[in-house]
Design a protein that fits this description.
The strands form two sheets. A seven-stranded parallel beta sheet has the order 3-2-1-4-5-6-7, with helices on both faces. A six-stranded parallel beta sheet has the order 10-9-8-11-12-13, sandwiched between helices. It is built from 16 helices and 13 strands. Helix 12 (272-280) links the parallel strand 11 and strand 12. It has helices spanning 12-24, 27-30, 43-49, 69-91, 104-113, 129-134, 170-173, 179-182, 203-216, 233-240, 256-262, 272-280, 298-308, 322-333, 336-349, 354-369; strands at residues 3-7, 33-37, 54-56, 93-98, 118-121, 140-143, 160-162, 192-196, 221-225, 246-249, 265-268, 285-287, 312-314. Helix 1 crosses helix 16, helix 9 (203-216) packs across helix 14 and helix 12 crosses helix 15. The protein has 380 residues and is of the alpha/beta class.
């Protein structure tokens, strides 16, 4: 029987889409999946919560800026390759599926050296550094958009398949019954705004909520994911909010899909996974992407692509004021017809079952491979 190894991590954006693919596999295949991540990444907790066997290897972060840690990472990457090489052999690995992040580089490299077929999936319209490094070693390169194909060299084009981005099934099925009462929110008839900065939080977004919470909770209920680094803000924000109309937490984890399905408006960063989760729930969105200076610009491009489809409003000014933020929120939340148009646009965006398509790619490669580790044919 085949052993499938998933790899990826660093943020939830590299992990949750991988879980969506895992859940799309037949149960017999799920029982044979293991995950290789980093020692300290968020993936250990998330994957462990899903009951998938988890293993870790050393991983050097792929930084585009000067940092003394880069010196140590020169040694961590080859150490990670060696550890992954031994681990893949011990697990009897027949295929590796990579969702990206710096930990994927040593795992994919080790798989290539062992002649184990690799499928990689890129979530962003513009491939990240880990994807660019590992793509030449992959049997299949899965991308979210047709335009993404242009970012790869001509010799890789035959490996590329357009799949969209996978989303966990809970974003289609989670029940919202009794959700507000479960959070202790008494105003269950008011519009609900869900604010999230992703698994690590977003200081800019949190500051905007803190500055406007009194005005917002005059008309809406605010459910706020701060991220662990900003958890200390929650009591102070709650004091300024109208009673029964604010709930803050560092993370929501299991409740997050239901909260998104319940929201009348989602305010978020613009990670690729977040956008597709919002689309899967057919929610209107206000997106506040990381600026070009704070990232490689992928969030801004993700956000503009989604906004062009009519499903979101983008606030991309790093000096965005509380007044400007509040004005845009009201322009959406006070206009039911506009929200309805945005919901239809979101539904059109998420029309494909990306997780199912990717699971089929894994299954197809396993069937074709047939003879276990050491087969070079599928890679070439």
């Amino acid at each position: 029987m085949s052993r499938i190894v998933f790899t990826g991590g660093g943020t939830g954006g590299h992990v949750y889409p991988g879980l969506a693919v895992y859940y799309a596999l037949p149960p017999a295949r799920q029982s044979l999946v293991a995950w290789i991540g980093s020692h300290r990444g968020v993936e250990r907790r998330i994957v462990g919560g899903a009951g998938i066997p988890y293993y870790s290897v050393p991983a050097g972060k792929l930084r585009r800026y000067f940092d003394l840690e880069n010196v140590l990472d020169v040694f961590r990457v080859p150490a990670g390759v060696c550890a992954a090489y031994r681990l893949l052999r011990r697990l009897g690995t027949e295929i590796v599926f990579s969702k990206g992040g710096y930990v994927a580089v040593p795992v994919v490299t080790a798989a290539y050296l062992l002649r184990i077929p690799v499928i990689i999936h890129e979530s962003d319209a513009d491939p990240g550094l880990a994807t660019r490094i590992t793509a030449p070693m992959a049997s299949r390169i899965l991308v979210p958009y047709r335009e993404t194909q242009r970012a790869f060299r001509d010799r890789l084009q035959g490996k590329i398949v357009v799949t969209g981005n996978p989303v966990r099934p809970e974003f289609r099925t989670a029940s919202v019954k009794g959700l507000m009462e479960q959070l202790g929110l008494s105003e269950t008839t008011l519009p609900v705004i869900l604010v999230t900065g992703g698994s690590l939080g977003a200081q800019q977004v949190n500051s905007l909520v803190a500055a406007t919470i009194a005005e917002l909770t005059r008309e809406v209920v605010v459910i706020h994911q701060t991220g662990a680094l900003s958890a200390e803000m929650i009591p102070e924000i709650a004091k300024r909010a109208a009673p029964g109309r604010y709930y803050g937490a560092p993370e929501f984890t299991a409740l997050f899909p239901a909260l998104m399905r319940r929201a009348d408006l989602v305010i978020a960063r613009a990670g690729a996974g977040t956008i597709w989760e919002i689309a899967e729930c057919r929610r209107p969105a206000v997106l506040i992407p990381l600026s070009q200076g704070a990232s490689r610009g992928d969030q801004l491009r993700n956000a503009m692509r989604y906004a062009t489809a009519g499903a979101a409003v983008v606030l991309d000014d790093p000096s965005l004021t509380a007044e400007q933020f509040l004005s845009v929120v009201w322009s959406v939340i006070r206009d039911p017809e506009r929200r309805e148009r945005m919901m239809r646009a979101a539904g059109a965006w998420a029309s494909e079952d990306a997780a199912g398509l990717i699971a089929n790619e894994l299954e197809s490669l396993l069937v074709r491979k047939g003879s276990g580790p050491g087969e070079r044919r599928a890679i070439l």
